[in-house]
Specification:
The protein is of the alpha+beta class and 863 residues long. 37% of the residues lie in helices and 21% in strands. It has a nine-stranded mixed β-sheet, with helices on both faces. An eight-stranded mixed β-sheet has the order 14-21-20-16-17-18-19-15. The protein has a six-stranded antiparallel β-sheet with strand order 9-8-7-6-12-13. A hairpin with a 2-residue loop joins strand 28 (739-746) and strand 29. Helix 2 (25-52) packs parallel to helix 16 (522-530), helix 3 packs parallel to helix 19 and helix 9 (210-222) packs across helix 10. The radius of gyration is 31 Å and the shape is globular.
Length: 863
């Protein structure tokens, strides 16, 4: 993982050109603000798209097209501004943004399913491939990437292959004609059926393009789980909309038990493609999309599981959605017999408790099961007499299946209809997971008011909605990045401040609640993309909610309840195909997926490089972090700064020796040129730092004993900035009304604080770096560990290496920025000479606890 220092080094290596040796801090800061302004415009468009998808707004195609155009132009302006700030060292962002813009325009034109590779391995499918792999394969790929659920290994023949097949066999005119017919309300079923039948016959006799046949053969060669090629495969349909917002259950054809042979797979593939034009599927499509929609289909080719038992899991009982129960039906053998009603099935009912509990079962007499036939394919065979009355699943398998169901419901943020199987070694596989749609009548909310009166309210009118929805689970407090590793799936995440580093667990959270934050932050954008119910800025309402307490978050009416409110969860689950049926909603949802997903999450924990940008949100995040680093560098141009006639000494009751350069509103008008006292400091962030440094007992004057060994280390191993060379000895503060860049040295340690404090929360940041000391490396490293421990307690994201500490905090309200800077001022004074006392690891926690408890005098007492 790369630190911000590595990022800066990478930027300089990657982007040619340098900056002028002397840059005006005022002009640099003005350029930084221009970057923020253009970035904010783009982020506001992304946030507005997410808000429109909340269900409370009507919009048309014109809104979508205008938003996309505005977003493209705003991102381009941001790229221009960051290049102006950095001296054209971010030119590589332009072709990246152009490619992303072209993807969006292709999407708007309805042609985004025609590019890309012919075949993609299932474990290599990314979200950008979704338009080309179809809904079913996209869901399977997502399941595969989010353990512990497991799917059979395989590959996807993409929609590009479908279009190549259509074009290669001269069927484009037929396909376009059928799409026009589907959108014509006057067209009758007889003509529709005639056209569909003709296309099915032509597909059945189509010639496979040579490159597609070669790609299938190559895919089969790669498909060797555990080093052994599977003998049989399943070739499953994966149409564009299938299993996404609509189930298309049973509308398309899948071929089971296909020989591992490219000709056999090709034949099965043509059967799947032909099923796209099944008249039943066309009528269903016409009912869902009366305005018409593009026709394309992919095929998911997977290892055929030798199933001992198979069946269906509903994560909500569709007959009693308020019961908080799951329903499982299953039988022996392959699941096709279950979904088509060919065999009797066992029935199980499992309550969603913690842990789940089996509450009902009805075991059928099972006399037949669907198994592989001798000549290929599947056939019904008799069940052994001793097994006919035995349940197809034991209790352990049922509970494991229930846990997988809850995992998938949390992952996709809505009830699921799941096809599953268990092989003869007891391994559970998910074959399909699609949205479970419940009855319209269950969505009626009017009776809720009376039912909710029986639940205890933790908070009403709580904060602001970042993403609408309702989620319930056990509360789990996240105070530092380290807390994420133990985050339990299905929990409600409570945290002090919204932060994009929460991304790794967002898909696992039932809901997210933050004490401070804004609906326009990076995290809020991600909540909308992942559909995680989220309230931000709820204040102290959840501060005393203990981890493990079950709560329900209503991010519709901004309420938080103690306990699991089943009525609200039913309201959430009982959705009907309404707004999401409209073509405008579906199109905007796809636009949102393309622009808002964030891959560049944390500059301290991952590489931040232009080539890592996969969405506009990534580009904007990269631009913002690069702009902040440019500000951090301001205080390094010391030779230029010291020559500025406006630089003035700061007069303080402590020997800080700071020189001040005001670039706009940082010093009160009328202040004398020969010095600045504390009262004349008008810069809010700088004043907050000074208040911390001047806090009683923080700045201790007791001389520290420095041993001979420590003295020699300090003389021979003067720390160096890992990027730009040795620090100098001047302490310089560049300030404005809402900005401070403080670069200073006390003894043998070196600090940088760069902070921006503005009314727009997402513009705010604090960057803090600490390096060095007057002792040996072990003591300096202990002091660094102490500083890191304290910073983490105040929600900083921290990286530590030896005696170097780098930390970042961002997206903060102005009051919190100033409060945190005041703490940093105290920390600077408190730890100023502390390295020489760090004789043992035990002292790290001792001094950290003392600082957090306000016992600053411990340093003078010597511990």
């Amino acid at each position: 993982m790369a630190s911000l220092e590595k990022l800066r080094s990478a930027l300089r290596a990657f982007l040619p050109g340098g900056r002028s040796s002397c840059r005006s801090p005022a002009l640099v800061f003005a350029s930084f603000q221009a970057v923020l302004e253009s970035n904010n415009r783009a982020l506001e468009i992304i946030a507005d798209i997410g808000e429109k998808l909340s269900g409370d707004f009507l919009f048309d195609r014109r809104y979508i097209e205008t938003s996309v155009d505005d977003l493209i132009q705003s991102v381009r302006r941001s790229i221009d501004e960051i290049n102006h700030l950095t001296g054209d060292r971010c030119l590589s962002l332009r072709p990246i943004a152009d490619a992303l813009a072209e993807r969006l325009r292709t999407l708007l034109a309805g042609r985004d399913d025609r590019g890309g590779p012919l075949l993609i391995d299932l474990d290599k499918v990314e979200f950008k491939n979704w338009p080309r792999v179809g809904g079913k394969a996209a869901h399977l790929a997502e399941i595969n990437q989010n353990p512990p659920a497991r799917v059979p290994e395989g590959f996807v023949i993409t929609t590009r292959a479908f279009h190549d097949l259509v074009d290669g066999n001269g069927l484009r005119r037929d396909l376009d004609s059928l799409e026009r017919l589907l959108a014509d309300p006057a067209a009758g079923d007889a003509e529709l059926e005639r056209r569909c039948r003709a296309l099915r016959e032509k597909i059945a006799g189509a010639r496979m393009p040579a490159d597609l046949a070669a790609a299938i053969a190559d895919g089969l060669r790669r498909l060797r789980p555990a080093g052994v090629a599977p003998r049989y495969l399943a070739v499953r349909s994966s149409a564009l909309e299938e299993d996404m917002d609509f189930s298309f259950a049973g509308q398309f054809h899948s071929v089971m038990q296909v020989e591992n042979d490219s000709d056999a797979i090709s034949t099965a593939y043509l059967e799947v493609v032909a099923s796209l034009f099944n008249i039943k599927a066309m009528r269903y499509r016409r009912q869902l999309f009366p305005e018409g929609s593009p026709l394309a289909i992919a095929a998911c080719c997977q290892r055929m599981i030798d199933a001992r038992a198979s069946g269906i899991l509903y994560t909500v009982d569709p007959t009693e959605p308020r019961s908080a129960a799951m329903v499982v039906v299953g039988s022996y053998g392959q699941g096709q017999a279950v979904v088509e009603g060919q065999v009797p099935t066992d029935y199980f009912r499992i309550n969603k408790e913690n842990p789940p509990r089996i509450v009902d079962r009805a075991v059928a007499r099972k006399t037949a099961m669907l198994l592989p036939a001798a000549g290929g394919g599947l056939g019904l065979q008799a069940v052994a007499a001793g097994d006919a009355d035995r349940a197809c699943l034991d209790d352990g398998e049922l509970l494991r299946l229930a846990a997988s169901g809850e995992h998938l419901e949390t992952l996709f943020k809505r009830p699921q209809d799941i096809e599953w199987c268990i092989d003869r070694q007891g391994e559970l596989y998910i074959l399909q997971s699609r949205p479970l749609l419940l009855m319209e009548g269950e969505k009626e909310r009017l009776p809720l008011a009376e039912k909710l009166e029986g639940y205890q309210l933790i908070a009403a009118d709580a904060g602001r909605v970042a993403q609408r929805g309702i989620g319930a689970g056990r509360a789990y407090r996240v105070d530092t990045y380290a807390d994420l590793k133990d985050f339990p799936e299905g929990a409600v995440l409570l945290t002090h401040r919204d932060a994009s580093y929460l991304v790794p667990v967002m898909r696992l959270a039932a809901a997210i609640v933050t004490e401070v934050g804004t609906p326009l932050s990076h995290m809020a954008t991600l909540c909308r993309e992942f559909r995680v119910p989220c309230l931000v800025g709820v204040g102290d309402a959840v501060r005393n909610v203990e981890t493990g307490t079950e709560i329900t978050v209503d991010a519709e009416d901004r309420r938080i309840y103690r306990g699991r409110v089943h009525e609200l969860l039913t309201f959430q689950a009982a959705t009907a195909v309404n707004l999401e049926m409209t073509p405008e909603f579906r199109l905007l949802r796809r636009v949102q997926r393309e622009v808002s997903r964030l891959n560049l999450v944390d500059p301290l924990m991952q590489e931040f490089r232009p080539e890592g940008c996969q969405t506009f949100h990534d580009v904007l995040r990269y631009i913002h972090e690069t702009a902040v680093l440019e500000l951090v560098d301001l205080g390094r141009d010391e030779g230029c700064l010291l020559g500025d006639s406006l630089i003035r000494p700061l007069t303080l009751p402590i020997p800080a020796g700071i020189l001040v350069l005001d670039i706009g509103g940082g010093i009160a008008p009328g202040t004398a040129r020969d010095g600045v006292d504390f009262q004349a400091v008008a810069s809010a962030p700088f004043r907050a730092i000074l208040e911390g440094m001047l806090f009683p007992e923080v700045w201790h004057d007791v001389p520290m004993h420095v041993g001979f060994r420590d003295m020699m280390h300090s003389m021979l191993a003067t720390p160096r900035d890992t990027l730009t060379g040795q620090y100098t000895g001047h302490n310089i503060a560049i300030i404005s009304r809402n900005y401070v860049n403080l670069c200073f040295r006390f003894g043998y340690h070196f600090n940088i604080i760069d902070a921006h404090c503005h009314e727009v929360e997402r513009d705010n940041h604090i960057y803090f770096r600490f390096l060095g000391g007057a002792s040996d490396l072990s003591k300096r490293s202990r002091r660094a560990a102490l500083i890191a421990m304290i910073l983490k307690a105040f929600d900083f994201n921290v990286q530590i290496k030896g005696d170097l500490v780098i930390s970042r905090a961002s997206n903060m309200m102005p009051a919190e920025v100033n409060r945190t800077l005041e703490i940093l001022g105290r920390l600077i004074g408190f730890t100023r000479q502390l390295d020489v006392q760090m004789e043992s690891d035990a002292l790290v926690e001792r001094y950290a606890e003392a600082f957090l408890m306000g016992d600053y005098g411990i340093v003078a007492r010597g511990g």
